[in-house]
Amino acid sequence: MEWIHLFETWIWLGFAATGFAILFNVPPRTLWVIFIMGALGGTLKLICLKLGTNIILSSFMGALLIGFLSVVAAHLRHSPPFIFAIPAVIPMVPGAFTYRMMLGIIRLTGENDHTIFLQLLQETFDNGLKAFFVLTALSLGVSGPMLLSRNKSTKEIKTSKIVTKIFGSKKASD
């Protein structure tokens, strides 16, 4: 029964990633790759959660897998890595924590009891921090492999034209 539930979750995560890919108008030839990447990244996150890892590290691991797979897919499908990575990682965005934080802020405005106010404040702050750290983990996990796999250093990336426009010719006139 556990495997059936995992497979069903895998399918829904893939459909969610594909839906966001269609929303972002990615090339149709990349849709099946995005389906698989979204399903694999989200499933890894769920497996890490089942094994007892916290939500932040689990999200980072899923996003890291998506980041590495997007670099490989970019070379194989001749498309930029972000075409694959962004739609695949969006289903892992922590909507529940953000919703609970906003709901807590609304409830804080009408609470008069001091002890309940402090409890609501703590829960709201906790949900907000979890959402922030999960989003940070997702962004670092997706962008890390892309930054590690670059062919050129930062100094070599089309800065020569900008430097020439600002400072004139590269050759020093002695």
UniProtKB/TrEMBL annotation:
Origin superkingdom: Bacteria
Full protein name: Threonine/Serine exporter ThrE domain-containing protein
PANTHER family, per the entry: SUCCINATE TRANSPORTER SUBUNIT YJJB-RELATED (PTHR34390:SF1), UPF0442 PROTEIN YJJB-RELATED (PTHR34390)
GO terms (BP aspect): succinate transport
Record's subcellular location: Cell membrane
Cell inner membrane in keyword set: yes
Family according to the record: Belongs to the ThrE exporter (TC 2.A.79) family.
Keyword RNA-binding tagged: no
Membrane-crossing residue ranges in chain numbering: 7-24, 30-48, 55-76, 82-99
Keywords: Cell inner membrane, Cell membrane, Membrane, Transmembrane, Transmembrane helix
Membrane topology classification: Multi-pass membrane protein
Domain Threonine/Serine exporter ThrE: 13-143
Main location per the UniProt record: membrane
GO cellular component, one term: plasma membrane
Pfam family, one: ThrE_2
